[in-house]
Each structure stands twice: as structure tokens, then as C-alpha cells.
């Protein structure tokens, strides 16, 4: 029996979506044991999806039916599903029993959306995938808490998100106007696609219409990344959401945004026009500075971490600006390939950010018996919850970029890629300055991250406090902290996969740029693994 | 024994870290067991360090003397097995290693660290009563990190350990410090971090220069590596232009000068020293400040020789200002601990002055000075802590005539004072003498050495610093030990400390035993420093001076070159000499 190729290609996502639909139905049951088993069902769905996602993109044409399956997709799936498991663990206790079905179903929809972003080879599909990521998160924020602030956050996030989505769609319409096709890459050079068009007619790259379209798409992506100047919603939204959801918000839309940006940048072969380059450069600088300085001014732990997530987007933008390099000269170690560095950083960031928010959800204020909100609630917490505070400290130090935490390696890869790219970009000094500004920002960021640690460890305890009673939350927190240290000691597991994913971009880029002949073009979209092999 | 012999350095570094984790798993209810175990763990580390010394001496005993690296251990840490050969000219690899080894420059500092930490832990037995478990765990973590810095032979690994020292000390100052502990801890952390992130950028840049220019001798591959030997080659082969070297030098300087601290970057130091608990101050002064000077010696000088020669006069000027300013500032302090803290600023000025004289005598003197300063200032901080435990004050105005009440204490205070001000016969004298000798003779070309950048006019004001040093230290002794007996009201010599234990008027046996080994080392180094010199001199020559030589000859002969490659008579010979000098680096590594 043969399965339709689309089903086999999208098996992990389909599993997630089917499971989510099931959860929606089963969630209406009135039996307690059914409701209690819903999180376990969610985990099982994620496990099955992960099992289906194991393997490697083989040879042959993998791009068909507006879908492309390459190493980037595999990376996106693995990371999404692994972090997804942690997100579910950390969120186990958040929804009320009656809402559990909807809650985890929405979560699965959102996670499925991330890999679909990587899969999409079509503007419409890309847009829909991005919305599939975002729309469930709007509802999750509202479900996660019952107070006014959560409702405000939902409303704000929804309206601004819709606004940004409209921007992006508008941008896609311009790009469609230029290319006359919604296909991004296409399966062969014969197929009409935007990427091929830009190779054939390089003059179109700097066409005003392309520029406008690209800018608008970038604006939409910047919203997902929470990059300046589209970062305004971040603090209110993270603050309004329950901490576990805020931890998810730091990963899900951001990863989707990074993947979308990688795909869009691949369409234009990572050849930024000067205007786009400087725009992204300014955006990266502003994102780092604004995120860090605003975080410095916060007294609320969640708002602080929210702004810090803005700053981390800035670091990832630095890596993406460095680009993948050309495969013919590049090695795809994360230290060389900016895409790889960004993908590595994103995975680590997902862990450490989720860990920090999980700790905030676990530790409760001794005064109000609510999960930590204000920084003051953490005062002296290390004496009440030594293990949780240790995990929090590990995650925060990792965010700070201090060895021996994986966040340090993330920064190492990002800045190293930027230095490496200095030779190949037309603006070497700009890249070096980006690194100097980046490390300077790490020092600024240290000031507020240190405040979290200082509040936990250096302050006298406020009084006896209880922790959130949830073993899943505890396990999630522990795994995050252990992972952050573990990936420092053994980064190769992750960086190798990120390297394969980044290599796709580099290989595809050099194929298109160098191979201008039709003969070369037919092989251009072949499997990345094949094109990555030595050609002698 | 085979395992130990092969992995002795890893054992030294990771045993304290493992012990710290083990300590955290112990029940908090038994502080006695916790501190006993912490002390035993640090003692075991000292034993390992001594074993390593024995191995080192054993391996290096031969016709060549103590030249090369020994006890090397390496394994890949960050590496990528992807096929890098993507149609490029040659294969390329990424290679960040866990690579530790010992040479004559690291060994004395390793031993100093291994000696000071058990003493610091022992000294805290009475004074630390709160959160005992965390305290000793942090001290042991710090211990492992410091040992790692001195053993690392990969620049990135060096940086990892260098940065990691910040966290434990931050918490030690911040939790168990004095009244302004939070401000002191924040200032310490942020100030040093701000400097070292720039160092980080320089580290990355150096790695990429190595990638672009250095080939693996085995297969001709391009390697992104941070291995020190490779990075040393960069300048030797002329891949770093003087302007690039200058920028990199300043970036490294930012991290190290703050750590040392060199005037005017010293402002965090008095506060951190004063607020830290006794053990924290002793370790901070004894070892952590040396990370900065060690960084200059290990990285800046051999890696960026041209820039080092260019900037040497400037650094010497700052060092001299630091010597004089630190001494004058120490003189006017009323708080004993602050006085000792400022004396560190002054002393480390000497250390850098000797180092940047770029003479054998100056460099070995500077290295010896690091050890001396660790011994005597570490001991002085312990002594201050003993007074504080008894009287709960560090104000000189409230104390006086203690020699009569505490004769043993008085003996040790005077002993370490004399060591600190450089009385012949004790260790301080030799270091100071060599440093000044280096500065004085820096310009001479006797013995065929190229002229150094400093000269008489740098040495004279520095020598004045010695006089000032004697003044403020003797001022301290007079005020605290002699004159009419003065004690804070209510204490009457049998002060009960905050926890109700009474300490005897004079030092207890434990306190005496703390100070005795330090005093013995001071005396030993003062009387018979020859074995230490035998260990230190060959690597200083082969690892530092030999690499500096072309740059010194070129720059100071007056014809400033556009690129060191042009002027360097025979860069290959330098490299081969360096390789010959440490044959073990090739043979030991797997």
C-alpha cells in the first residue's frame, strides 16, 4: 500500500493536528480520569510525532506540492517537538480541568505551525503556517489566567498580531506582483519561482516594488521576533500571560519568525541590497539596545524577561545578518554559518527562557501565594526553594551568557559567525561593530540578570512560602536547567544538526549563485545532503 | 596510578567542582561535617597539586631542563564531523579543545592556589555560621575554576574558567560580606564582566585569524582553533599587523587590567576587598588578581608582541601611578582591611612594571611577585579577619597595643608586614629586587638581549613606592600593635562573637596553624628561591621572551616596521624554537 507522498512528508505535523482535534473532542468529557489523562495524551502525540520525524532527508527531489523537506525542516521539527514536550510539562498545571482539552489542543496546533513554516514553499502556505503558530497563542494567553490583565494581553496581542499579519500579507502581494507566482523556490528550475526569477533577472533585486514587498514581509516577521520597532506588545503580553505561557511565547513565535526569515532571505539568496542591509543592521542594534535598556528599568520579573527576549532576538538577528556564507568557502560549523548559529541559539534560548519562566511559575510569593510576578517576590527565595533557585540561576546565567552554560556557546557562535562573515559581506566594519555592540550589550544585560540572582540569593527570606505543587512543572524545570548545562559540555549533538540545517542555505545559495547554467539549475534544488558532499 | 598520572590536571580541576556538588547534596543540618569535608576536599586537591608537581619535575628532569609543557591532556570539546570540504581548496575543521597542561609559569600559581584555598576554607570555620553548605560549595567551585585558568592551554577554555570565577565570588561577597556587600558584589561582577566581554570579542577575532592563516601541520587543513600555540604563531609569522595587534591588545587589556587591577581601573577593588568575608578577601587578593597578570603574561605578551612593546611604556606609567597612588591611599586609610586592599593596588603595579620591562629578571621577578603577593597579602587578610572576629572592628583608631595581649598575633603581623615590604631574607625582597632590576636594566643590551622599553626613569619613582610601602605597613603595625592598649569598649579582650563563642585573647591553635605554612613558604622563598627559579626561567625564556624578541629588536631599534614580517629576521626560527622548546606538546597530545 502506498501512501500519498504528502502524507508521508507531513506525517509528524499531521499527527499533531489529528491529536489536537482529538483533544478538542475528548476535552468535553466530564469524567475526571479522562481530563487528567489529557496532558499525557498530548505528550504521547508529541512522542509519536518525534518518532516519525526521526530520520534524515534522503536523496531525490524533496520539494513538491509547494512543500520542501530539507535538513532545516528536520531541525525545526526536532527542536519544536523536544521543546514542545517541555512546554507541555511546564504548562501541565495551568489550565482548569474543563479547559484542558482546548488548552493542549491549541498548544499542539501552534507547535505544528512551526514545522509547517519551515516546510512551506509557497507564500500563502507560509503565511497560513505563521498564523497557525500565532492564533492559538492569542487564545492560550486568555485561557492561562482569569484576570483583567490576561484579557488585556490577549486583546493587545491579537490586534497587533493581526495588524502585523496584514503587513506581511500585503508584502507578499507585492512579491506576487513581481513574480507572478506564489512559489518561493520550486522543485526545479523549470518551475516558475520567485527565487529562480531573482537569479535570472538580478535587476529585480533592487526593484522598488521588491524592496517594498520585502520590507513589509520583514516587518511582519519582526513582529513575531519582537524586534524593535515592533516590540511594544512584549512586556504587556508576557506580563499578562501566566509564566508557563510566557515561557512558550519566548520560543514559539520567535522560532517561527527565525525560520520564516531564513526562508525569505534564502529567496533573495542572502544578497541584501544596501538599504535592506542597513535596515536590518539598525534593527539588530536597536533591538539589542532597546531590549536590554528597557529590561534594565523593570522591577517586574516577567516584564524584565520579556524585554530580555527582545534583546535575544537582536543577537539572533546579528547571526542572520551574517548569513550562511557560500558553501564553497564556508564550513558550516555554527561558528562560521550565521544561520546555523541562529538556529543553535534559538534552541538554547528556548530551553533557558522556558526554564526561567518555569522557575517563576514554580516559586510563589509568600505574601500573595501567587506565582512570582514582581522581582520582590523572589527575595530570599533560595532559602525556601534551593533547587528551584539553582535551576533559575543556571537559566539566568545562561541568558547572561556566562560559562559554563550553553548560552555562552550561543553567544560564541553568533558573534563568531558575525566576525567570520566580515570577510564576505560588503560591509566588514559593520559586522565587526555589530560584534562589539553585541558583547557590550551582554555586559549591560548582565546588570539586570544579576538582579534576579541577587534577589534570590543575597536577600533575607521574606517568610515561609510554598511552591506550586506540580511534578510535571518540576521535571520540566529540571530538564531545562540540566539541558542548559549539558549542552555546554556536549554541544556537538545540537550543533551538528544545526550545522546540517544551515548547510542547506549555504549549499542552495552557492548552487544558485554559481550555477547559472540550466544544467546546473536542474540539480540546484536537489537534496542538501547530496549537494553537501565533496565535489571533486 | 596510571590514571592519575595521565589525568592529574583534570583531577585537580574537577575534583573540587565535584566535591562542591557533593557538598550541596549533604544535609544542611550538620555544619561540622560540611566544613570538615570541604576542608578535606581542598586538602586533597593540594595533595593532587603536589603530586602533579612531582610528576612535572620528574618529566622535565633531563638535559633540556624545565622547558616544555608537561602533563598535557586534550580532548575535542566543540568539533564538527561534517564534511567540510565543499569544493574549497583544502579541508577545514573546527576544533575547540579541552586542553590543559602545565609549564613553569603555571606551576607556581597552581601551587599557590592549591595552598591558599584550604587555608581560606579553614579560616572560615568560626566566622561563617549561616548557609554553611552553600558557602563551602562556592569556595570549592571557585577553587576549581581558578585552577582551571592556570592549566588551560586553549584560549577559549581559559576564557571559560576566567569568567566562571565571577559567579562564586559574586555570591561569596554578596551573601557573607559586610554591610555594603550587595553594592560591592554588583560592582565587582559588572566591572570585571564589562572588561572581559571585550576580551571575548578579541578571543573570537584571534580564532578567526588563526583559521585564515594557520594550517594544521598534519594534513594542511584550515583549522578554527583557539589553541595557544597556534595563536602564538600568528604574530610570529606576521599575520597580525601592528594596528590589529594594538586593537586586540586593548581589548585583552580591558579584561585583564580591570582584573589586576591597574590604575585607574582599580575602583572596584577596595570595596570588594573590604566587604568580602575573610576567606573571600584572601582568595581575591591571593589568586584572583593574579588571573589578570597571568593573562598579560600568558596571552598579551607572546600573542601580541609588537603591541606589547608599543604599549609597554604606557602600562608602565599606569603601573607607577598605581604604585604611588595605591601606597599613598593605603597610608591614609583608617580601616585596616582597606589599607591592605590599597596595598594590593600598589603591589600589583610592581608586578606589571616588572613584566613590561620585558627582561628576564623583570619577568621572573614579576612572576615571583605574584606568588609573594598571594602569600603575604593572603596572610594579612587572614590576620585582619582574626582581629575582626575578636573585636568586630577594623578601625585602627579603636585598636592599639595589642602586642601585649596577643603576642603570637603580633609576631605574625610583623612577619608578614616585613615580607610584604621586602625585607631581605623574606620572599618579598627577591621579587621586588628583580622587578626593579628589570626596570632599571630594561634598556641595556647586555648578554645580547634586545633593549626593553623601560629604563631608569621608570624604576626610580617605582623605587620610591617601596619606601612608601614600608611607611604605610609599619604605620599599621605601630597603630595596632604598639602604644597604649586600646580595645573597643565592651570587648575587654575576651570578646564573645556574634554567635556566643568566646575566642581566646591570642590566636588559637587553628589560627596559628593557618598562618604557619604561609610563613614557612615566605621564609623558604626568601632564603632559597633557586628551585623556583629553575622552574620558572626556562619557560619564561622560551614561551615569552623568545616570542617577544623580534618585535623588541624591530620596534626599539627605531625603524618601526609596516609589518613585522618585513623586519623579522627569521620568523621561522622563532617558531621552530618554540616548538622545540615544548616537544611534549606534540608528543603528549593524542
Descriptive labels:
heterodimer; A: 536 residues; mainly alpha; two-stranded antiparallel sheet; 23 helices; 2 strands; globular; B: 590 residues; three-stranded mixed sheet; disordered C terminus
Can you give a write-up of this model?
The complex is a heterodimer of chains A (about 525) and B (about 600). Chain A is mainly α and about 525 residues long. Chain A has one domain (about 10-530). Chain A contains 23 helices and two strands. Chain A has helices spanning about 5-10, 10-25, 30-55, 70-90, 100-120, 125-145, 150-180, 195-200, 210-225, 235-240, 245-250, 250-265, 275-295, 300-320, 340-360, 380-385, 385-400, 405-420, 430-460, 470-490, 490-515, 520-525, 530, and strands at about 65, 65-70. A two-stranded antiparallel sheet of chain A has the order 1-2. In chain A, helix 4 packs parallel to helix 15, helix 14 (about 300-320) packs antiparallel against helix 19 (about 430-460) and helix 17 runs antiparallel to helix 19 (about 430-460). The radius of gyration of chain A is 22 Å and the shape is globular. Chain A starts with a helix and ends with a helix. In chain A, about 65% of the residues are buried. The model of chain A is unreliable at about 330 and about 515-535 (pLDDT under 50). Chain B is mainly alpha-helical. Chain B has one domain (about 1-490, about 500-590). In chain B, about 70% of the residues lie in helices and about 5% in strands. In chain B, helix 4 runs antiparallel to helix 5. Chain B is globular, with a radius of gyration of 24 Å. Chain B starts with a helix and ends with a helix. Mean pLDDT of chain B is about 80; it is low at about 80-90, about 495-500 and about 560-590.
Amino acid at each position: 500500500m502506498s501512501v500519498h507522498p504528502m502524507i508521508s512528508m507531513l506525517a509528524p505535523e499531521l499527527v499533531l493536528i489529528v491529536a489536537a482535534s482529538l483533544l478538542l473532542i475528548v476535552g468535553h468529557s466530564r469524567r475526571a480520569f479522562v481530563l487528567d489523562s489529557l496532558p499525557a495524551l498530548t505528550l504521547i502525540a508529541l512522542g509519536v510525532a518525534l518518532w516519525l520525524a526521526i530520520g534524515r532527508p534522503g536523496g531525490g527531489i524533496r520539494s513538491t506540492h509547494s512543500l520542501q523537506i530539507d535538513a532545516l525542516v528536520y531541525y525545526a521539527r526536532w527542536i519544536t517537538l523536544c521543546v514542545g514536550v517541555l512546554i507541555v510539562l511546564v504548562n501541565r498545571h495551568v489550565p482548569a480541568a474543563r479547559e484542558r482539552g482546548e488548552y493542549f489542543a491549541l498548544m499542539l496546533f501552534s507547535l505544528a505551525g512551526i514545522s509547517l513554516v519551515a516546510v512551506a514553499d509557497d507564500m500563502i502556505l507560509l503565511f497560513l503556517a505563521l498564523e497557525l503558530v500565532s492564533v492559538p497563542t492569542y487564545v492560550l494567553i486568555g485561557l492561562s489566567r482569569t484576570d483583567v490583565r490576561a484579557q488585556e494581553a490577549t486583546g493587545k496581542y491579537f490586534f497587533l498580531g493581526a495588524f502585523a499579519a496584514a503587513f506581511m500579507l500585503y508584502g507578499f502581494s507585492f512579491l506576487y506582483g513581481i513574480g507572478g507566482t506564489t512559489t518561493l523556490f520550486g522543485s526545479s528550475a523549470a518551475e516558475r519561482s520567485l527565487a529562480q526569477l531573482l537569479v535570472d533577472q538580478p535587476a529585480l533585486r533592487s526593484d522598488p516594488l521588491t524592496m517594498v514587498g520585502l520590507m513589509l514581509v520583514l516587518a511582519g516577521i519582526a513582529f513575531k521576533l519582537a524586534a524593535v520597532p515592533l516590540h511594544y506588545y512584549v512586556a504587556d503580553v508576557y506580563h499578562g500571560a501566566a509564566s508557563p505561557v510566557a515561557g512558550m511565547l519566548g520560543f514559539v513565535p520567535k522560532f517561527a519568525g527565525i525560520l520564516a526569515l531564513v526562508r525569505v532571505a534564502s529567496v533573495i539568496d542572502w544578497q541584501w541590497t544596501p538599504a535592506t542591509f542597513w535596515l536590518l543592521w539598525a534593527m539588530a542594534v536597536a533591538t539589542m539596545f532597546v531590549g536590554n535598556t528597557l529590561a534594565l528599568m523593570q522591577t517586574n520579573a516577567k516584564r524584565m524577561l520579556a524585554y530580555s527576549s527582545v534583546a535575544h532576538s537582536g543577537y539572533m538577528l546579528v547571526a542572520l545578518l551574517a548569513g550562511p556564507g557560500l558553501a564553497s568557502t564556508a564550513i558550516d560549523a555554527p561558528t562560521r554559518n550565521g544561520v546555523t548559529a541562529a538556529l543553535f541559539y534559538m534552541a538554547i534560548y528556548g530551553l533557558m527562557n522556558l526554564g526561567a519562566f518555569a522557575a517563576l511559575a514554580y516559586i510563589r510569593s509568600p505574601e500573595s501565594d501567587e506565582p512570582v510576578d514582581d522581582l520582590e517576590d523572589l527575595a530570599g527565595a533560595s532559602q525556601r526553594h534551593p533547587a528551584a533557585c539553582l535551576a533559575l540561576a543556571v537559566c539566568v546565567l545562561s541568558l547572561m551568557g556566562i560559562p559554563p552554560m550553553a548560552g555562552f556557546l550561543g553567544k560564541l557562535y553568533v558573534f563568531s559567525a558575525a566576525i567570520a562573515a566580515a570577510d564576505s559581506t560588503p560591509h566588514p566594519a559593520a559586522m565587526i561593530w555589530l560584534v562589539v555592540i553585541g558583547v557590550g550589550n551582554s555586559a549591560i544585560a548582565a546588570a539586570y540578570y544579576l538582579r534576579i540572582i541577587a534577589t534570590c540569593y543575597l536577600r533575607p527570606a521574606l517568610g515561609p512560602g510554598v511552591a506550586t505543587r506540580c511534578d510535571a512543572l518540576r521535571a520540566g524545570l529540571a530538564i531545562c536547567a540540566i539541558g542548559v548545562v549539558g549542552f555546554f559540555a556536549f554541544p556537538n549533538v545540537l550543533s551538528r544538526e544545526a550545522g546540517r540545517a544551515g548547510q542547506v542555505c549555504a549549499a542552495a545559495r552557492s548552487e544558485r549563485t554559481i550555477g547559472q547554467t540550466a544544467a546546473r539549475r536542474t540539480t540546484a534544488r536537489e537534496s542538501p545532503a547530496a549537494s553537501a558532499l565533496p565535489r571533486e | 596510578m596510571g590514571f592519575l598520572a595521565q589525568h592529574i590536571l583534570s583531577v585537580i580541576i574537577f575534583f573540587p567542582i565535584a566535591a562542591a556538588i557533593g557538598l550541596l547534596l549533604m544535609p544542611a543540618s550538620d555544619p561540622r561535617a560540611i566544613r570538615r569535608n570541604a576542608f578535606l576536599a581542598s586538602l586533597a586537591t593540594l595533595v593532587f597539586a603536589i603530586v602533579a608537581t612531582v610528576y612535572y619535575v620528574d618529566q622535565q628532569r633531563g638535559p633540556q631542563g624545565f622547558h616544555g609543557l608537561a602533563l598535557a591532556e586534550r580532548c575535542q570539546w566543540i568539533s564538527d564531523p561534517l564534511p567540510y570540504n565543499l569544493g574549497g581548496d583544502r579541508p577545514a575543521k573546527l576544533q575547540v579543545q579541552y586542553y590543559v597542561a602545565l609549564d613553569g609559569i603555571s606551576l607556581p600559581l597552581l601551587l599557590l592556589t592549591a595552598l591558599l584555598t584550604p587555608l581560606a576554607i579553614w579560616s572560615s570555620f568560626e566566622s561563617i555560621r549561616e548557609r554553611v553548605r552553600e558557602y563551602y560549595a562556592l569556595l570549592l567551585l571557585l577553587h576549581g575554576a581558578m585552577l582551571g585558568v592556570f592549566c588551560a592551554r586553549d584560549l577559549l577554555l581559559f576564557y571559560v574558567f576566567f569568567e566562571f570565577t565571577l559567579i562564586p565570588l559574586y555570591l561569596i561577597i554578596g551573601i557573607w560580606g559586610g554591610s555594603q556587600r550587595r553594592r560591592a558584589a554588583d560592582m565587582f561582577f559588572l566591572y570585571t564582566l564589562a572588561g572581559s566581554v571585550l576580551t571575548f570579542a578579541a578571543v573570537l577575532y584571534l580564532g578567526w585569524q588563526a583559521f585564515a592563516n594557520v594550517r594544521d601541520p598534519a594534513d594542511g587543513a584550515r583549522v578554527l582553533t583557539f589553541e595557544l600555540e597556534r595563536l602564538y604563531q600568528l604574530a610570529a609569522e606576521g599575520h597580525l599587523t601592528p594596528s590589529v595587534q594594538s586593537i586586540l591588545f586593548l581589548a585583552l587589556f580591558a579584561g585583564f587590567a580591570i582584573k589586576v587591577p591597574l590604575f585607574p581601573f582599580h575602583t572596584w577593588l577596595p570595596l570588594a576587598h573590604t566587604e568580602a568575608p575573610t576567606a573571600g578577601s584572601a582568595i581575591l587578593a591571593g589568586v584572583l588578581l593574579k588571573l589578570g597578570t597571568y593573562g598579560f603574561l600568558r596571552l598579551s605578551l607572546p600573542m601580541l608582541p609588537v603591541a606589547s612593546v608599543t604599549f609597554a611604556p604606557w602600562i608602565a606609567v599606569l603601573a607607577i601611578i598605581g604604585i604611588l597612588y595605591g601606597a599613598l591611599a593605603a597610608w591614609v586609610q583608617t580601616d585596616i582591611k582597606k589599607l591592605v586592599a590599597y596595598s594590593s593596588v600598589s603591589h600589583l603595579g610592581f608586578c606589571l612594571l616588572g613584566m613590561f620591562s620585558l627582561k628576564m629578571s623583570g619577568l621572573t621577578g614579576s612572576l615571583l611577585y605574584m606568588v609573594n603577593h598571594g602569600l603575604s597579602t593572603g596572610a594579612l587578610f587572614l590576620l585582619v579577619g582574626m582581629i575582626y572576629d575578636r573585636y568586630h572592628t577594623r578601625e585602627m583608631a579603636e585598636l592599639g597595643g595589642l602586642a601585649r595581649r596577643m603576642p603570637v598575633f603580633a609576631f605574625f603581623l610583623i612577619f608578614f608586614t616585613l615580607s610584604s615590604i621586602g625585607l631581605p631574607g623574606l620572599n618579598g625582597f627577591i621579587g621586588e629586587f628583580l622587578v626593579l632590576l628589570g626596570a632599571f636594566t630594561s634598556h641595556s643590551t647586555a648578554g645580547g638581549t634586545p633593549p626593553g622599553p623601560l629604563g631608569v626613569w621608570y624604576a626610580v619613582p617605582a623605587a620610591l613606592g617601596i619606601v612608601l610601602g614600608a611607611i604605610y605597613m609599619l604605620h599599621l603595625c605601630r597603630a595596632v600593635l604598639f602604644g597604649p592598649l586600646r580595645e573597643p569598649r565592651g570587648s575587654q579582650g575576651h570578646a564573645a562573637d556574634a554567635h556566643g563563642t568566646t575566642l581566646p585573647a591570642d590566636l588559637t591553635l587553628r589560627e596559628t596553624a593557618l598562618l604557619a605554612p604561609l610563613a614557612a613558604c615566605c621564609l623558604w622563598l626568601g632564603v632559597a628561591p633557586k628551585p623556583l627559579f629553575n622552574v620558572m626561567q626556562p619557560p619564561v625564556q622560551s614561551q615569552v621572551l623568545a616570542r617577544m624578541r623580534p618585535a623588541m629588536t624591530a620596534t626599539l631599534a627605531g625603524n618601526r616596521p609596516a609589518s613585522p614580517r618585513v623586519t623579522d629576521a627569521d620568523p621561522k626560527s622563532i617558531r621552530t624554537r618554540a616548538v622545540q622548546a615544548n616537544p611534549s606538546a606534540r608528543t603528549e597530545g593524542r
